[in-house]
Amino acid sequence: MPDDRILTVTMPKWGLSMKTGKIVDWFVSEGDTIAKGDDIVDIETDKIAGTLESPVEGPVRRIIAEPGSDLPVGAVLAVVAPAEVPDAEIDAVVEEAKAAVESGALEGEDEPEPQLVDVGGRTISYVSLGPDDAGVPVVLVHGYGGDKNSWLFVQQPLAEEGHRAIALDLPGHGASGKDVGDGSLRTLTDTVTGFLDARGIERAHLVGHSLGGAVVAAVAKAEPGKVASLTLIAPAGFTPDADAEYLRGFASASSRRELKPLVGRLFSDESLVTRQLVDDLLRYKRLDGVDKALTAVLGTLLGEGDRQAIDTRALLEGVDVPVTIVWGTSDRILPVPDGVELTRVAAGHMPQMEAPGEVLAAVKARL
Question: Which regions form coiled coils (predicted)?
Fold first, then answer.
């Protein structure tokens, strides 16, 4: 039997579309001792680059994956074990790991398919990960122009820790139907509430980003009994200010040249934006009905003088559920508000992508 003191770090699965990851740079070396949660390696996916936090602790005995190598999800990247474990046993684990990659045994594993549900005559696409009987689920709601893939660094880890994590596409976004009606906050709120009812979810921990933050706050205002907690990530509606040029530009952009610099504004580190991420957004924007949908929702976000039209602080007044607010210190889309208790993280407008470990910690603290 293999020594149970030998632990491995494997290629994570960040998002449903991820098949492989490219090793960019290691932050640790063989002989270093790592702790759970330490940043250990940068990995580039087809969507975005991310930093893998160690799931294990102990001395790094072998680093298998060299920078520049593309490896499938599940491939062993490093081996961790106490010094007293013989080198021969470590070498055996390394050889087995390399053989698994070379044989192709790690490729083509089954992955959950997005599901569809009718909510008030609108088709809503969602993905549910984790056990159905895991208790109160976590429901993740993206921002303007985003989709359920916005949670690629959050949803899978929650599921792996035994939580039921559900990411949905709002109307007009992702793979959901493109009918947004009047595009109002009420319409989006009713959709999320209707989604919970359609899936038989009596209570949920709601996590919302940007526009999604305002939406889940409105759900808690309208149906507090359905909400176990709120985690709001750079939520819309906390200040009058917003990067209206970004919002209007995103709604109207029709080419890579127009879209790429706008997407870069979402991140503190613009190098995280991959060509594939921009191509996917451009492909979405060219779908029938998307322009009309984004324009309608834009009218909900922006009011006179290009100021924010939503007042999320007012929505939260009288809401008696635990609320956590997370904000990137380098947010260029929605400025960090004053006079609000919040968790600041080193990120731009997409903390769930740039600082997923801290976002995960904030969500799990409410579970």
Answer: none
Rounded Cα gap, residues 174 and 186, in angstroms: 20
Q: Are 14 and 42 in contact (CB under 8 A)?
A: no
Q: How far apart are CA 127 and CA 168, in angstroms?
A: 6
Could you tell me if 256 and 274 are in contact, meaning their C-beta atoms sit under 8 angstroms apart?
A: no
For the record, the structure tokens of 300 come out as 């909900």
Q: In what order do the strands lie in the sheet with 165-168?
A: 115-119, 122-129, 165-168, 138-141, 204-209, 227-233, 323-328, 343-345
Read off the pLDDT of residues 160-171 as tens digits, 9 standing for 90 and up. Answer: 889 999 999 999
How far, in Å, CA of 233 to CA of 260, rounded?
23
pLDDT at residue 113, as a whole number: 82
Cα separation, 329 vs 296, in Å, equals 29
Q: How far is CA 173 from the centre of its chain?
A: 15
Number of CB atoms found within 10 A of residue 307's CB: 12
Q: According to CATH, what is the number of the domain 7-103?
A: 2.40.50.100
- Measured CA to CA, the distance from residue 15 to residue 12 in angstroms comes to 9
- At the top level of CATH, the class of 115-364 is alpha beta
Measured CA to CA, the distance from residue 28 to residue 77 in angstroms comes to 12
In the chain, what are the domain boundaries?
7-103, 115-364
Q: CA-to-CA distance for 15 and 13, rounded, in angstroms?
A: 6
| pTM, rounded to two decimals | 0.83
Q: Structure tokens of 115?
A: 């599901």
